[in-house]
C-alpha cells in the first residue's frame, strides 16, 4: 500500500513549491495513526559513535499485522536518516521490530539506497565499519551522551576565521574586540590541489596577524566534520582526490604547529550557535547559517556542545519522494536544498528570474538579492518560500532539540531576504505550532551579535 497517506499537506503553502510535504507533519500523522490503533509497537534507535557515546531515540510504529504496516519502513528510514546526520553514528541498534531492522540494514549495506551515508559515517567520520544491528528494545544500549564547553575565551591577541564555500572571513581580535576583519571571495570546492587550500588559509591568517602586535591563539570554523582539529569530511575539500585527502585532513594541525600557537577548528554550525549564545547571553541555542549550504549548531541548555554532528544540511525536512535531490548525497528533501543559496538557484526558474552563468555563486546570489530589492515579484516568492520551509523545518528540529532560541543568519539572510524569511517562518510557527511560538525565540542576529560575529566567536575557541 502507498505511503502517500503520511504526506500531510501544510496549511500554509510555499508559493513556489505547493508540493512541499513537511517532515514534521508526516511524522505526526504517522505517530497519531500508530497510537490510534490502541496497540502501537515501540521502536528504539540507538546510535553509537566512535568514542562509545550513545544517543537513544524512542518512538512508536504500527503493529506488524496492520494493513498499512509497510509505512513503518518509510517512517523509520527517514527518521534514522535525520538522526544519523544530527547525532552521528557508526553503529545503529534497531530495537523492537525485526522487519524494520532488516529493512534498515538493507538500506545501509553496500549497494543499498543509503550506502553513501553508511560510507560517510563509517569509513570517513568515525573510521569504523558501519553496522545496523537488529535487537529487542531491552537490548538497545542506554543513553551515554557527552557534552563539553566550547570557546568563550577572549583574552589576548587572537585570530578567528570562517571558511565558507563562497567566501572566507577572518578577524584580528584583541581582548574580545575585532580590530580588523576582511572577507575574500573564493571557490575552494573546485580546487583539486591541497596546496591551494593551505596557501589561501595562510594568506588570511597572515593578513590578520599583521594587524596585531602578536598572535596568541587561532580559532576557525568551516563546513564539514572536524574531530580533534582534523577534517574528517568537508565540503570545501570535495575536489581533492581521495588519495591526497590526507594532506588536508591534518592541515590545521600542521598550521598550528608551524605558527607555534594553539589552533582549534570546529564545524561552522557550532560556532554559529556559540556566537548566538554569547550575544544573547543565554543557552539552548540552535544556530542555522544559510550560505552555500545549511550549517547547524547547538548549544545545550547548560551552555555546552554535544558530540553530535548537527549536519542539518543532510537531514530530511521534505518527505515528498519527488522533492529536489542533493547532488552530493543523492538523497531527496534534505535541508541544503531548502535553507541555502542552492534553494534560491533551484527556485529561480519557477520564479521567472534569470540568473547569470559563468559567475561565482556569490555573484549569482547577489543578482537574485538585487532583484528582490528592486521589487521583482518572483524573487520575493523565492524568499517567501524559504520562510515557509523554515517554519515547518524549525518545528521539525524542535522535536530533536531542547530550544530557547533559534538564530538564523548567513548570506541568504542578507538585505531584504532575512526579514521575509523570518516573518514567513514566524507566521507558520504561530498558526501551526503555537506551543513552539510561546517557548522559542526565533530571530536574526541583532547588532550585538553582528559585533561578536562568526569569526570572533571562532577566535574564542582556543584556551590559552
Description:
The structure is a single chain. The protein has helices at residues 23-36, 71-87, 98-107, 115-126, 194-209, 245-249, 251-259, 268-280, 341-348, 361-373, 377-397, 416-432, 434-437, 447-459, and strands at residues 41-48, 54-61, 91-95, 131-135, 147-148, 157-163, 167-174, 177-185, 217-222, 225-227, 230-233, 263-267, 285-290, 294-299, 305-306, 405-409, 441-443. The termini are far apart. The mean pLDDT is 94. It is built from 14 helices and 17 strands. A hairpin with a 3-residue loop joins β13 and β14 (294-299). Helix content is 37%, strand content 20%. With 464 residues, the chain is α/β, with parallel strands linked by helices. The chain folds into three domains: 11-145, no CATH class; 148-268, 2-Layer Sandwich (Nucleotidyltransferase, domain 5), CATH 3.30.420; 271-459, 2-Layer Sandwich (Nucleotidyltransferase, domain 5), CATH 3.30.420. The strands form five sheets. A five-stranded mixed beta sheet has the order 8-7-6-9-12, with helices on both faces. α2 crosses α3 and α11 crosses α12 (416-432).
Q: Summarize the biggest pleated sheet.
A: 5 strands, mixed
Tell me the β content.
15-25%
Tally of separate helices? 14
Number of strands: 17
Q: In oligomeric terms, what are we looking at?
A: single chain
What's the rounded overall pLDDT mean? 94
Structural class label:
alpha/beta
CATH architecture of the largest domain: 2-Layer Sandwich
Q: What does the radius of gyration come to? A: 22 Å
| Amino- and carboxy-terminal Cα gap | 60 Å
Amino acid at each position: 500500500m502507498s505511503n502517500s497517506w503520511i504526506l500531510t499537506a501544510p496549511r500554509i503553502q510555499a508559493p513556489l513549491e505547493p508540493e512541499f510535504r513537511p517532515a514534521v507533519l508526516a511524522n505526526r500523522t504517522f505517530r497519531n495513526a500508530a497510537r490510534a490503533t490502541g496497540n502501537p509497537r515501540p521502536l528504539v534507535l540507538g546510535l553509537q559513535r566512535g568514542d562509545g557515546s550513545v544517543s537513544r531515540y524512542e518512538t512508536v510504529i504500527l503493529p506488524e499485522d496492520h494493513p498499512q504496516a509497510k509505512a513503518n519502513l518509510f517512517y523509520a528510514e527517514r527518521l534514522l536518516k535525520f538522526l544519523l546526520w544530527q547525532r552521528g553514528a557508526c553503529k545503529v541498534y534497531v530495537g523492537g521490530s525485526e522487519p524494520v531492522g532488516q529493512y534498515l540494514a538493507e538500506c545501509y549495506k553496500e549497494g543499498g539506497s543509503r550506502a553513501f551515508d553508511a560510507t560517510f559515517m563509517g569509513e570517513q567520520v568515525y573510521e569504523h565499519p558501519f553496522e545496523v544491528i537488529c535487537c529487542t528494545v531491552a537490548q538497545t544500549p542506554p543513553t551515554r551522551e557527552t557534552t563539553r564547553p566550547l570557546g568563550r575565551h577572549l583574552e589576548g591577541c587572537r585570530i578567528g576565521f570562517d571558511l565558507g564555500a563562497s567566501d572566507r572571513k577572518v578577524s584580528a581580535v584583541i581582548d574580545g574586540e575585532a580590530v580588523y576583519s576582511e572577507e575574500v571571495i573564493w571557490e575552494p570546492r573546485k580546487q583539486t590541489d591541497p596546496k591551494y587550500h593551505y596557501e589561501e588559509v595562510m594568506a588570511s591568517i597572515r593578513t590578520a596577524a599583521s594587524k596585531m602586535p602578536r598572535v596568541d591563539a587561532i580559532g576557525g570554523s568551516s563546513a564539514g566534520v572536524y574531530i580533534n582539529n582534523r577534517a574528517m569530511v568537508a565540503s570545501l575539500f570535495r575536489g581533492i582526490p581521495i588519495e591526497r585527502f590526507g594532506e588536508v585532513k591534518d592541515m590545521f594541525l600542521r598550521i598550528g604547529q608551524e605558527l607555534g600557537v594553539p589552533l582549534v577548528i570546529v564545524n561552522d554550525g557550532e560556532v554559529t550557535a556559540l556566537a548566538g549564545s554569547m550575544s544573547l547571553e543565554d543557552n539552548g541555542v540552535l544556530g542555522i547559517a544559510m550560505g552555500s549550504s545549511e550549517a547547524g549548531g547547538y548549544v545545550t541548555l547548560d551552555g555546552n556542545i554535544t558530540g553530535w554532528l548537527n549536519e542539518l544540511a543532510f537531514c530530511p525536512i521534505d518527505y515528498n519522494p519527488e522533492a529536489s535531490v542533493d547532488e552530493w548525497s543523492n538523497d531527496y528533501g534534505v535541508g541544503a536544498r531548502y535553507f541555502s543559496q542552492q534553494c534560491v538557484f533551484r527556485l529561480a526558474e519557477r520564479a521567472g528570474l534569470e540568473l547569470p552563468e559563468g559567475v561565482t555563486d556569490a555573484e549569482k546570489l547577489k543578482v537574485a538579492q538585487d532583484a528582490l530589492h528592486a521589487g521583482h515579484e518572483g524573487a520575493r516568492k523565492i524568499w517567501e518560500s524559504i520562510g515557509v520551509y523554515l517554519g515547518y523545518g524549525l518545528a521539525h528540529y524542535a522535536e530533536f532539540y531542547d530550544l530557547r532560541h533559534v538564530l538564523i543568519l548567513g548570506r541568504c539572510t542578507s538585505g531584504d531576504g532575512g526579514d521575509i524569511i523570518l516573518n514567513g517562518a514566524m507566521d507558520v510557527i504561530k498558526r501551526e505550532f503555537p506551543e513552539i511560538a510561546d517557548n522559542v525565540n526565533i530571530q536574526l542576529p541583532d547588532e550585538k551579535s553582528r559585533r561578536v560575529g562568526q569569526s570572533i566567536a571562532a577566535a574564542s575557541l582556543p584556551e590559552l
